[in-house]
Amino acid sequence: MCGIVGIQGLQEDASIIAMNEQIVHRGPDGEGVFRHRDNHLSLAMRRLAIIDLAGGVQPMSTPDGLYTIVFNGEIFNAPDLRKELENKGMAFQTDHSDTEVVLNYYALEGPAMVERLNGMFALAIYDRAKKTLFCARDRAGIKPFYYCDDGRRFAFASELKSILALPDFARRVDRQSLFHYISLMYVPSQRTAIEGVRRLGPGQSLTFHFSDRRLEVKSWWRLSFNEDKSLSVGQWRERLRATLSAATDRWTLADVPYGCLLSGGLDSSAIVGLLAERGADIKTFSLGFSGPGEEQWSELPLARSMADKWGTEHHQIILDPQSLLDDLGSMVWHMDEPYGGGLPSWSVFKFLGDHVKVALTGTGGDELFGNYNKFSGLERRFLPGLSAGTHAPSEDRFRRGFSDRHYYCSDADKRRHVFAGDCTGLIDTSALLYGHLAAQESEALRNRTTRVDFETQLPEEFLAMTDRFSMAHHVEARTPFLDNHMIDLAMSVPPSLRLNPRRYKQLLRDTIGDLLPSDVLDAPKRGFVVPLKLWLRDQLRPLVKHLLNPHRLAAQGIFRPAFYDHTVRPHLDGEADNTTLVWGALMFQIWHQVFIEQPSPQAPTWDLKAIGA
């Protein structure tokens, strides 16, 4: 696990160093730089040593010097791939580095080798003979990959802030991305919050040709549904149990200690139970808040029940919500892009960083098994009886029955009340989401809604947040539910069986139910409740009034000055509950100060509370 950066084109020697220094937190265990001056190429990385601690140093080249790689991630089938290559006569220089496996497989098969990789990765491989860079991102988008090409230089990085460290880089807000952000509270798709910077999507690759500066982006994998009606419910349970168990075992591959995040929910409990069933020695970590009313929604008792059942070494993190406010500036800097979603995971990884280097999480389980049954409203209200149908609803029905119901601000309201200037050229967020829903023919409606979440919210909100918050504290977060075999198997379950509109995750509950205490198995889905509504009216009130006042909004030219009186002031005065929209706008403004208004994108050292004083 590490962070990677690279430049091809006009550059100073200091540029690659400046990019790499922005991501020291991703790799405190070492660094490396590779230059090929004739081809104006520089590659660099920061290393968090997890596998083959003594070897695995990057950038890594083949003995003949034809190929050089920088690689971020872990390949969990690397031991098997290594045996295949050794059987073909290929020699290895390291003891068991997965980076060398990827490099050697590329030397043998070229870009097609990414289809063999089971794990999480973002990589760049330099082909000296062809004068190309081949870059790729894993299937689910667990690891990030940003890039830009301004005609003078092509640059890539694990984090956006590295690209912003390039000299003379113009930092301007991408209005289309911000338009989507206000609805979603994260930036979706391949555009980013900064004009001119893009990200590879999940399952995409990029080939950059030095000679003519041609850039080719392709999808090497996309979620597919291969429905298998031949198995009984009991057989599906057996196969899912065996596949998830094998995936969980695979994703513990490490030469350093690991732990498990245990929320008390179904997904993280399943991972802990499957590991404990095989006799693994497990450290578990759970988060709860102090303060009035906490006991009504805390999952600490459920997590403790699971830990007691299996005798794990259990750690409870009791957090004063105020401490999240103290770290808010750091969170914004590490996230890279505007984010108005959940923050408590920051504190979990902050604690984990003092105990383990690897943490298994249940991320991905929701998306595989229904994501809060978001599909059911669309079926019930607009397409009754069509759950097994293979056509998409109309775009208008999708907007009314899905996007306007599940997201935070409608496209119409954004145009009327939020954004200044001409918005006619901006694509509606509902249209963006509908593009994913209607992308493939002959998919059941329930599968179509799964695709929307799998290709948008999962990679660019949940996995992005997990990556940034874990790496900020030198922890590698792993997601066994997103193992290749688990994804493929889950997507072959008939949607009428995989997704139950009457009971959330029924199939998964039945699959792993014997591993969980009854109180965990039967508990309703919960989440961390951060008192944002009260924060905005109390501790954050001065900051809100400072960053969202009409005079600042008018000078900035992004939001309507009237946004304050229409949305912000009524919330502050208790006349309306506009928590999410005000919070999202505030988080954007903090991001804007850090990444646009500061002379350089450095980690903030200012006191957020003092700004509004």
Features:
613 residues, Rossmann fold, 6-stranded antiparallel β-sheet, 41% helix, alpha+beta, single chain, Glutamine Phosphoribosylpyrophosphate, subunit 1, domain 1, 28 helices
Number of strands: 17
Low-confidence stretches: none
Q: What fraction of the residues are assigned to beta strands by DSSP?
A: 15-25%
Fold-level CATH name of the largest domain: Glutamine Phosphoribosylpyrophosphate, subunit 1, domain 1
CATH homologous superfamily grouping of the largest domain: Aminohydrolase, N-terminal nucleophile (Ntn) domain
Shape category? globular
Strand line-up of the largest beta sheet: 2-3-1-9-8-10
Structural class: alpha+beta
What is the percent of helical residues? 40-55%
CATH architecture of the largest domain: 4-Layer Sandwich
CA radius of gyration is 24 Å
Q: Which CATH class of the largest domain is shown?
A: Alpha Beta
Number of individual domains: 4
N-to-C terminal Cα separation, in Å? 41 Å
Mean pLDDT: 91
Tally of helical segments: 28
Main β-sheet description: 6 strands, antiparallel
Task: Give an account of the 3D structure.
With 613 residues, the protein is an alpha+beta fold. It has four domains: 2-219, 4-Layer Sandwich (Glutamine Phosphoribosylpyrophosphate, subunit 1, domain 1); 233-369 and 456-521, 3-Layer(aba) Sandwich (Rossmann fold); 393-437, no CATH class; 532-611, no CATH class. It is built from 28 helices and 17 strands. The strands form three sheets. It has a six-stranded antiparallel sheet. Strands 4-5-6-7-11-12 form a six-stranded antiparallel sheet, with helices on one face. A hairpin with a 4-residue loop joins strand 11 and strand 12 (214-219). Helix 6 (233-250) runs antiparallel to helix 19, helix 7 packs parallel to helix 8 and helix 17 packs parallel to helix 18. The protein is globular. The mean pLDDT is 91.
